[in-house]
Amino acid sequence: MATVPGQLVWEIVKRNNSFLVKQFGRGTQSVEFSRETNNLYNLNSYKYSGLANKKTVTVQPVGKDLSVLLATTKKRKQNKPTAMFHKSVMKKEFRRMAKAVINQVARNYYRPDLKKAALARLSAVHRSLKVAKSGVKKRNRQAVKLYGLLKFFIDQYFGNRFPTGPAGSVEF
Q: Which Pfam families does the protein's record reference (predicted)?
């Protein structure tokens, strides 16, 4: 199969492809997004397109732990989808992952123009994988103080005649 230049592919797919999502705003303004796998900003533009460029970068979450997949396309395997990507899974802290992304994308002269986009995508993916801290939430001190005063006055007024719950809390 003959290779087709990226600009020609972009001219064919830029206005009509299955990944295109159009958002209409007020008036005549609209924003075009793209759901392509190798599009870092999910914008419908030639620079970020995974369909038109031979060299693409993608950053995706893998599993439920804090691991992130960094995949770059191999230039010579364009017609073999299973062997098309060079994949590396990163399970480190954020700074080490960011350094690995910079080394892979910019310092190896792969696509230095996508360095900022790849780091932004890595930051968003890493933030989405973080689990919220669980545990007892701190109660408002004024609410605790008010609750204690309320309990004190009820005990003083009603004595032992008022029913209490299993932990000695007052039930209304």
A: Ribosomal_L28e
